Amino acid sequence: MRTPSSSSTTSKTPCCSKVGIKRGPWTPKEDEILANYIKREGQGKWRTLPKRAGLDRCGKSCRLRWMNYLRPCVKRGHIAPDEEDLILRLHRLLGNRWALIAGRIPGRTDNEIKNYWNTHLSKKLINQGIDPRTHKPLNPNISNSSNLNISSATEKEMGFGSRPGAIGQNNHAKLVDCDNQVVNSSDLNRSNREIKMMVQQGGQEKEYCNKICDDEDIFSSFIDSLIDDNGFFNQDFTMLEESSEADQPRCWYPMDAFGEEQYNLTSDQLPRFCKYTYY
DNA sequence: AATGTACACAACCGCTCTGGG
DNA sequence: CCCCAGAGCGGTTGTGTACAT
Q1: Please, which domain of life does this record's source organism belong to (predicted)?
Q2: Mean pLDDT across chain A
Q3: Which residue is nearest to nucleotide C13 (CA to C1')?
Q4: Spacing of A35 CA from C5 C1' in Å
Q5: Domains in chain A, start-ordered, CATH in brackets?
Q6: Is the pLDDT of residue A107 over 50?
Q7: Which of A56-60, A101-105, A231-235, A236-240 has the lowest mean pLDDT?
């Protein structure tokens, strides 16, 4: 790890400019002091925490050590195949938003996922002929991604899609914001969270939902739905139908899930994404 | 056995965002 | 509106270790 003599090669001063602040690997004793202090006093006020706890570390270092290593909920060890698949899907949706990705994988930290991505998954994708940044084939001539061992969910397109199967050939969909600008995956948790879905059906573009993602929980559910194999994006849009109850908030759901009968469903019975997609 | 190389991951850095005064 | 401190994020680096020569 870094030693005091190996500090940044730039001329900028490090965050811990104080002489005498210890850097580099944490000792078991330091871990114990930090963990005991946080258990006793709680976390926060990182800048002053080292002094209060009696550590010769900077606040940032303490925070990092706690968040990435000492927290009781941190799960360490081998990344399971299902976790790996989830990381792949989330990265395809969110890009290098490690904290956001980590937030959806219980017990894993952003640092751990970032490291795992850089040391394992990016190389794995490259070996499979996939650009790890775009999740698209490195060689444009290779279009059949089913040979590339990507789950169906990771193939979902956020813009207009035309992938036969999950997205019908004649019905394409895109997510747009309130200005009708296409929302890319990297924009999903940015400032504009009013998203609606535009679906092309029979030559016409229909608006299927809007005003979603007004708060973190709803946005969180929206992300869930995007990465869920059984979620909306895996439905064939040819099966979409609208509720027509005039005096109730209308929402859409895939017909294949409920048949063509009159809907009489509680919110709990609706697909997760649909719960929030009124218009 | 000695040396070199590649890899994994903990830790650091600079930057941005947010909220309070 | 501005300033500042605190917190958090993503990119990068350094070191220990496993493996190859």
Answers
A1: Eukaryota
A2: 59
A3: A2
A4: 24
A5: 20-70 (1.10.10.60), 81-127 (1.10.10.60), 160-276 (no CATH)
A6: yes
A7: A236-240
